[in-house]
Request: fold
Amino acid sequence: MSSHADPLRRQDLDELERADATNTALHDWLVLIRAEFEEIPGLRLTQAQVEERWELDAGAVAAILGTLLANGALHLTSEGDYTSAEPL
Reply:
């Protein structure tokens, strides 16, 4: 084995740890934002308002809101507001 392989492995491990930390953080934000919509009936926020309210960047908010839409937790109105999904 060459000594060159070890730094690459360490770099790969570092990248995996960063990805895991990012996934954990996104999961925590998903839980928090979903809970906020559930706890405040009638809450309507645009993506920009979500970014401002939780001081998150547009990419993270787009991923979070997209996930919450996909799993049925949120609804996107024709006006561009995110609201808690109506119970069936």
